[in-house]
Amino acid sequence: MGTISYEEFTGSCLEFLKLSQELRDGWEAKGDALQEGNFYLMKLERIEDVLRDCPPPREKCDSDKDGNTKDNIGTIDIMEDCEELCLEDPSAIDNTCSKTIITYEYHITYSISYSVPVLYFNAYNHSGKLLTLQEMWRRVSPQHSEQILHQKWESLTQQEHPVLGRPFYQLHPCNTAKLMTEFSKGRKDLAPVKGLTYMISWLSTFGQVVGLKLPILYFQCQ
């Protein structure tokens, strides 16, 4: 009930693409729709990124009577670890633990094995270096991080792109059909979610896990 055929997938993608063009949201069609599994949608998006796990600045720490920072040794060790990370990892913004821009390349593909859409993506820092899998796990949206990180090897991993044949990160499609079935149960007429509605419902759910947010206009135009 939550699966779709390749023909339904391409049809949904073309409807979604048309709406995207009207909204100027940047999605593009790639590949050959007539060759099963070869068609996909692509979008580049630049997202402001914050490294969330850096410790607070020293000046915000409380001081003891001697004028020394409380837990001074431990604090210095933490700060040194963070500074070391920032020097070694250019993706963390020169890593002064501040904001940077991460470029995401999102691909909507079709899984022949699971008969559902799949979200593939890569992410690059300001110097063009691909973020590592560990960095991607750290950047999962807060509302989904516990669920994803609990089963991270089954949820967000690096796989070979089904069309391009090179490594991309992937949100695993094993639970997609089940989730989309739940969307159908929530409908008053209990009709299966299909077409443009299917695509928007799926992408709005899976995309937000890795920073892709659909403008509200997509829902208003259905």
Structure description:
- By secondary structure, the chain is α+β, with helices and mostly antiparallel strands.
- Helices cover 36% and strands 21% of the residues.
- The protein has a 6-stranded antiparallel beta sheet.
- A hairpin with a 6-residue loop joins strand 5 (156-160) and strand 6.
Describe the secondary structure blueprint for this structure.
Elements: H1 6-23, E1 28-30, E2 40-50, H2 72-88, E3 99-111, E4 116-124, H3 133-138, H4 142-150, H5 152-155, E5 156-160, E6 167-171, H6 176-185, H7 195-206, H8 217-220
Antiparallel strand pairs: 1-2, 2-3, 3-4, 4-6, 5-6
Helix pairs in contact: 1-7
Task: Offer a few descriptive terms.
about 220 residues, alpha+beta, 6-stranded antiparallel β-sheet, about 20% strand
Q: Main beta sheet: strand number and arrangement? A: 6 strands, antiparallel
**CA-based shape:** globular
**Largest beta sheet: strand ordering:** 1-2-3-4-6-5
Along the chain, the helix and strand elements come as HEEHEEHHHEEHHH
Low-confidence stretches: 53-96
Strand content: 15-25%
* Distance linking N and C termini: 21 Å
As a whole number of angstroms, the C-alpha radius of gyration is 21 Å
Q: What structural category characterises the helix and strand content?
A: alpha+beta
**Portion in helices:** 25-40%
Number of helices: 8
Count of distinct strands = 6
The mean pLDDT is 78
